[in-house]
Design goal:
- The complex is a heterodimer.
- Chain A is mainly β.
- Chain A contains no helices and eleven strands.
- Chain A starts with a strand and ends with a strand.
- Chain B is an all-beta fold.
- Helices cover 0% and strands 47% of the residues of chain B.
- In chain B, a hairpin with a 2-residue loop joins β7 and β8.
- The chains are: A mainly beta, B mainly beta.
- The interface between A and B is medium-sized, with 21 and 24 residues.
């Protein structure tokens, strides 16, 4: 069965880079039927799309974050990663990774989420 | 950018009630709207995709409709496990993937 699991530091200092990895099992991230996405949720607030990556390595990011976001694939480890640079307290959120079906683009499988706090 | 506006932001209802949540897009998104349910401390779960298609395993009391700029999610008979927050999301273009602000369904 498909499973996604986020991992990474729970605390990042302001101005530094937030780095998270999503390990996928039950499906290959090289599968052409899917995008691989990051979505975040500040405490007590709604969901915000961060970006996603296709098996080709093409990426799409939220315009409000675009210049700070890098998403990459590691097919040998079947995981994908998020780097968010120059973080501030506004980047404090639960970060979810999710699988997105290519032709309809709904997110059908999600990781449990990981809380990242930006604080000195 | 496409904006998705849900209403109401919250509602109180009783078990057995029929509940409808609406979602309006700032421009046409055809039928590319998905609906998710989220319970506290959990990841969202997909309920409905492309406006009206029920995901496998989701109870049939959930239904979706709409096209263009106006969409609805209906729960025909609210059950105790349905108390949660619901989000619409548009997926019309590759460069946009916007969520509504959420609707919290609470027990009356």
């Amino acid at each position: 069965q498909v499973q996604l699991q986020e991992s990474g530091p729970g605390l990042v200092k302001p101005s530094q880079t937030l780095s998270l990895t999503c390990t996928v099992s039950g499906v290959s991230i090289s599968n052409t039927d899917y995008y691989w996405s990051w979505i975040r949720q500040p405490p007590g607030k709604g969901l915000e799309w961060v970006g996603y990556i296709f098996h080709t390595g093409d990426t799409y990011s939220n315009p409000s974050l675009k210049s700070r976001v890098t998403i990459s694939l590691d097919t040998s480890k079947n995981h994908f990663s998020l780097n968010l640079t120059s973080v501030t307290a506004a980047d404090t959120a639960v970060y979810f990774c999710a699988r997105v079906i290519t032709w309809r683009r709904e997110a059908d499988y999600w990781g449990q989420g990981t809380l990242v706090t930006v604080s000195s | 950018d496409i904006q998705m506006t849900q209403s109401p932001s919250s509602l109180s209802a009783s078990v057995g009630d029929r509940v409808t949540i609406s979602c309006r897009a700032s421009q046409s998104v055809s039928n590319y709207v998905n609906w998710y349910q989220q319970k506290p401390g959990k990841a969202p779960k997909l309920l409905i995709y492309t406006s009206s298609n029920l995901r496998s395993g989701v109870p049939s009391r959930f239904s979706g409709s709409g096209s263009g700029t106006y969409f609805t999610l209906t729960i025909s008979s609210l059950q105790p496990e349905d108390f949660a927050t619901y989000y619409c999301q548009e997926s019309h273009t590759s460069y946009s993937y916007t969520f509504g602000q959420g609707t919290k369904v609470e027990i009356k």
